[in-house]
Write a structure and sequence with these properties.
This is DUF2973 domain-containing protein. This protein is mostly helical. About 55% of the residues lie in helices and about 0% in strands. It has one domain.
Length: about 110
Amino acid sequence: MLHLLYILAFTVLAFIAVGNLIRNLIMFSFDRERPYPVRSSAGNQGSFGYYAAKKQSIPHPELLDSAGNLIKEPLLVMRSINVEDARQKLDALYESSPGQKIERSEEA
């Protein structure tokens, strides 16, 4: 009987939690679309709202070089290789792993 009470209590709590999660997601989506007014009072002249600061387009510090200029070249360059080269590299990595040496000594 006590088990059924626990199952019922946790089921009710799960439904409340899922309902709360859905309600919060809906409210956050509405809140994101709502524009916030920029306050400019006498004591608060330098501060802007979140969306006003976002519209100014300040680049991330990792996108700037040491002089502060915006980097134009790509940050990640990938070299394409064929499947056989990738298999050979993975096999070499597997053969050099510490666990592989232990397994070979047990087989002998």
